[in-house]
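User: Structure tokens for this complex, please. No commentary.
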Amino acid sequence: MPQQNMLASNHAARGAHAQAVGTASGLPRRAGVGLKPEHFREVLEQLPDLGFFEIHAENYMVDGGPFHHYLERIRTHYALSLHGVGLSIGGEAPLDEAHLDRLAALISRYEPAEFSEHLAWSSHGENFLNDLLPLPYTQQTLVRVCAHIDRVQDRLGRRMLLENPASYVEFEASTFDEAEFIGEVVRRTGCGLLLDVNNVYVSCTNHGRDAVAFINQLPLQAVAQIHLAGFHRDQDAAGATLLIDSHGAPVDAQVWDLYRHTLSRSGPLPTLIEWDNDVPALTVLLQEAARAEQCMTQASTCQPASLELFA
Amino acid sequence: MSALQQSDFTAALFDPALPCPAGLRAWNGSDPAARFAVYRNNVVSGLIDALADTFPVVQALVGEEFFRAIASVFVRARPPQSKLLAFYGDELPAFIQAFEPARSVPYLADVARLELARVQAYHAMDAAPIDADCMQAALSKTERLPRLRLTLHPSARVVESSHALVSLWAAHQSDAAVNLSAVDTGRPEQALVLRQGLDVVVVPLGPGATRFCAALLDGTPLGAAAGLALQEEARFDLSATLVALLNHDAVCAIDFDCEA
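Assistant:
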């Protein structure tokens, strides 16, 4: 099973801090799926042909039991992507150092190829809100987000990936657009990008933006992983389409198109199929993963755009 | 966003009576309150779903609608303080106990305690159990017997109720050997909950054995623990209880207590 480093050097972080925090790159340019407890046994029995598994860090911050039992065994066969949901990088308060310590312990135990977190906040005061909440894009929030990412990268001793959010509201206070803000964070911190193509599609639909233009505006050379997921449809107060990032459905046709567009510019990238709610049979996840790999194969035979980008 | 704004945002997430936070906008000029409602719903229903995962039998006993009603009151009153959602709801049993509309189901809080104990046991620290030979050797020196200290598995915990919580719980399992309609809910029941291998097991115990296990968990030496068990129940059978503990891989260490 693939554990070798298949990432090319053009994915290394290029920012000012890149040297200080090092570059952690190791996910193969293949498709992976989220590791779910209901699939533990099946995964070990079948060892499906996949590039990697992803886990949510907070689920494994427990002392012992089946989660660690299975992850230890599955980890010997697959590369691992560690994805956090609790760090609250977009939060106003300083980062939770105890939580960073728990992340550092998990990283040292399981040696994931990548660690990623969100451009969002999920805690306030004493409370954990269990959701990825939006922030305005201003000079003030830019400085704070960068300080938080610097702290994460210093504490963990590695580059982290920042994921673009799915959001439902915007802020009157914002002075940057989202792609600009993300580009500036990457430039200042040297973090990599986790490009969630579904989030791009959801947010661009929800905020009347052009998704292709948004992708083209991002620093694609910093993207080290892609997420694909499903959404469901709702409406806002004016009856306009409002897409909800549900992680509970197959990847939409429009998102596959946007993914192919992204690959045509970036070349193949490690790609996660995210399906966290109403988790289907493992075979359904594997079919979605196979489809992502087909897109990658097509993209790698279609060189001109990639050459243009990396020339 | 100022400090005030993130705190307004948080307050409005949990209190539907509060207005949508100021400073939000939508590209098409529509009322941002409808969009903010998505966050409100995500946060509250996500936390209710987490509780439903931990307390499936509580939900089955009162029905989904009533469960989600209790849970939504709980979520707003006690949002999680930990980023580890696995143990969210450790205050739910006490909350149910004090929740007036749930009074008609007097055993509900105890069933919640059992389900919480199962989740805690599932994620508890790993430890290797001792085998029968090791136990035999430790028990063979009878003069030392009273001062032996048995360490139970880190996942082990005792659950007690003045209701038939073990039968009520068992009747809701897929391999149920107990028929719900045949359960005498007024009969007191107790159990030892622990992880055996990778599976969490619920071992029904008599009152004496329950007192014995609780004493061992407190660090009480064997002799004193057996004494407490006999006070609780004259029929308490020490050797049968030790065999049961051994059969469930519940004992991880036996030490001789020189201080006692």
